[in-house]
Amino acid sequence: MIISGQTKVAGIFGYPIGHTYSPKMHNAAFGQLGLDYIYLPFQVAPDKLGQAVESIRALNMAGVNITVPHKQKVIPFLDELTEEAGLLGAVNTILHKDGRLIGYNTDGRGFVSSLEADAGIDVCGKNILLIGAGGAAQALGISLATAGAGCISIANRTISKAKELADRLKRAYNGSDIHYLGLSGKHLSDVIGQADIIINCTSIGLKADDNPPISTDALHAGQLVCDLIYNPAKTKLLEQAQLKGASILNGLGMLIYQGAAAFEIWTGKKAPVDTMRHAIM
Ligand code: NDP
């Protein structure tokens, strides 16, 4: 990589930021396409977020990714939001265009692209169970509804949050078949049995000895069971789902495709997804 006076700068703002795979992924992609860009990690403390966002304009950066804990708090500092980011109330990508800062959210789109590319699944008309109602579940709910999911059920430990997300999706997607429920009981077991796609959007499974967030008794062949977690690569939920004959998918593809979408927003070029995948494997 040769840095010149023309090199465009992109990066990621988070706190902490030491764990991020994004610089590897994006710098490999810029290199593969011979683009004169560089991607850097920036540790941005919460009380410095406004200054950091203003620096995108001041330093004439191409754009940045935004990660925890800034995805919601960054919004007041932006000039414009895409419909998806506005609906979600969270931004993971900023484009600097003609002096304006435009906020996008590519998380949910990243998951839907991974379903299509890695699992060969079109969500249109599918019966989907989301487990969890936090930021990731919200992003997926919006993208899955946009992509034409037939029925979405949201199961969460805190039922009020599942209801809040279900109500929001119903308001935004008039007429969609959307339900909410708790994380246990016969009703959940029926919903699990009937789902085409089941997606763990909770943080349960991040620790290798975490038990699955739901009972796996009702899982069966013909279903796709997904976990947004990619480290460990196979959570106990995925292990048990596979033993029941279900297909499985972890969250690595979502990480790659949300990055690929950001890459395309900044550069206008098709992202070299295989290069990005190799860079973080
Ligand atoms: P949030 O903190 O916003 O939400 C966490 C969710 O997990 C909530 O629904 C919460 O339920 C639930 N939860 C946490 N602990 C428990 C528990 N002990 N029992 C039951 N439910 C629990 O996190 P995010 O939505 O941002 O992230 C969720 C997961 O998705 C994480 O594992 C994260 O690593 C992963 N992720 C992966 C991405 C990828 O690119 N592959 C991208 C983004 C996230 P409650 O509401 O009751 O607290």
Question: Any overview of this molecule?
Answer:
α8 (236-243) links the parallel β11 (224-227) and β12. The chain folds into two domains: 8-105 and 254-280, 3-Layer(aba) Sandwich (Rossmann fold), CATH 3.40.50.10860; 108-250, Rossmann fold (3-Layer(aba) Sandwich). It is built from ten helices and twelve strands. The strands form two sheets. It has a six-stranded mixed beta sheet, with helices on both faces. Strands 9-8-7-10-11-12 form a six-stranded parallel beta sheet, with helices on both faces. The longest helix has 16 residues, at 252-267. The radius of gyration is 19 Å and the shape is globular. By secondary structure, it is an alpha/beta fold. α4 packs across α5 (135-146) and α4 packs across α9. It has helices spanning 22-33, 49-58, 83-88, 107-119, 135-146, 159-172, 186-194, 236-243, 252-267, 273-280; strands spanning 8-14, 37-43, 63-66, 80-81, 93-97, 100-104, 127-131, 151-155, 177-181, 197-200, 224-227, 247-249. The structure holds NADPH dihydro-nicotinamide-adenine-dinucleotide phosphate. NADPH dihydro-nicotinamide-adenine-dinucleotide phosphate binds at residues 107, 132-137, 156-158, 161, 201-204, 206, 213, 228-230, 251, 254-255, 258. Residues 107, 132-137, 156-158, 161, 201-204, 206, 213, 228-230, 251, 254-255, 258 line the site of NADPH dihydro-nicotinamide-adenine-dinucleotide phosphate (NDP).
